[in-house]
Amino acid sequence: MKSRTPPSPSDMNDRMMREAGSVIHRRLEIMAEAVCDPAGADLTELALMSDEKLAAFQAVSERATAGAGVVAGRVADAWAVETDAASRAMEQVMTAPDAAQAAVIQTQWALGCWTRATERALTLNADWARMQTYVLAPVHSTVSANARRLKTKEKR
């Protein structure tokens, strides 16, 4: 069996926006039909318009808060590591036997700091991309379900 590569955040967003367009189009038709024929209005679909959005965006909010907490924790951990590294480097610089050795210690600390900062930046960028997909998943699944359901209703 061939393994399926998960879609990229960009592909997911593209699909979600296309499906959202079809959902909006069909729901506008449903609203127009309700205005023209209130007795025949699709009250179930009209009620879902708000309920589904509230549920999806509540889930998005919860996921975004959780994800931001994870990222904030990583930043706080990095701050602690760098504060400790700078403190140790300063101690070594202050007790170095001469200015040349102090410069070597300071250079080693700076190179280590830059290397760790680059690694963290790459990790955080990847985390943000994964978090975007994770956070928007409830909206994506709601929009996809709506697009399928409304397409089916349209065919009836």
Q: Termini, distance in Å?
A: 36 Å
Gyration radius over CA: 27 Å
Q: What helical percentage do the residues reach?
A: over 70%
Strand count: 0
Question: How would you classify the helix and strand content by structural class?
Answer: mainly alpha
The largest sheet is: none
Q: Can you give the mean pLDDT?
A: 90
Q: Strand portion, in percent?
A: under 5%
Query: What's the helix-strand series?
Result: HHH
Number of helices: 3
Query: Given the C-alpha coordinates, what overall shape results?
Result: rod-shaped
Low-confidence stretches: none
Q: How would you classify the quaternary structure? A: single chain
Describe the structure.
There is one protein chain. This protein is 88% helix and 0% strand. It is mainly α. It has three helices and no strands. 6% of the residues are buried. It has helices at residues 9-36, 43-94, 99-155. It is rod-shaped, with a radius of gyration of 27 Å.
TL;DR?
The mean pLDDT is 90. The chain is mostly helical and 156 residues long.
Overview features:
single chain; mainly alpha; 3 helices; 0% strand; rod-shaped
Topology:
Blueprint: H1 9-36, H2 43-94, H3 99-155
